[in-house]
Design brief:
Layout (H helix, E strand, L loop, with lengths): L4 H133 L4 H14 L1
Helix pairs in contact: 1-2
Length: 156
């Protein structure tokens, strides 16, 4: 093996290249790699936070959906109860109105009965007076009286 000045020149050039690379090239490369590593780790952390936020949002949406379903059930139950109350009130009002109409009709019937009785009483009184007049105008005769009373009874 022959060691000469070329080998020393190459070794010195290589040492200068290593020093230059370590001084000027290596720090930006290491910084770029560190920056890239940092961005990757931040991206992974952001992805993990995103997954956690998604899970929380999923739970919140499920809770909101359950709450909305419960509220809808309450509203439906309340509306059914309100409908039953309205139907009951309408039924009660109809019963009250029917009783009022029935009482009014009964009062009208009683008034008509009273008018008919009064009319009948007046008619009977008129017939009695008329019969009495006829009896008194005729001569007193038992047969004539009986015939006249029979005729009055027929008119009644």
């Amino acid at each position: 093996m022959n060691i000469n000045a070329t080998l020393f020149g190459q070794a010195i050039t290589f040492a200068i290249l290593i020093w230059f690379t370590m001084k000027f090239v290596w720090p930006p490369v290491v910084a770029a790699l560190d920056e890239r590593s940092k961005r990757i780790s931040e991206g992974l952390e952001a992805a993990e936070r995103g997954r956690q936020d998604y899970a929380k949002a999923e739970l919140r949406s499920q809770d909101a959906l359950n709450e909305a379903k419960a509220r809808a059930s309450e509203i439906i139950a309340l509306s059914e109860k309100q409908a039953q109350i309205i139907v009951q009130q309408a039924h009660d009002a109809a019963v009250i109105e029917a009783n009022r109409v029935k009482a009014q009709a009964q009062a009208e019937v009683e008034q008509e009965v009273m008018r008919a009785r009064d009319s009948l009483r007046d008619r009977v009184a008129d017939l009695a007076v008329s019969g009495a007049e006829k009896i008194l105008r005729r001569e007193i005769n038992v047969q004539a009286h009986a015939d006249l009373l029979t005729a009055i009874q027929a008119e009644l």
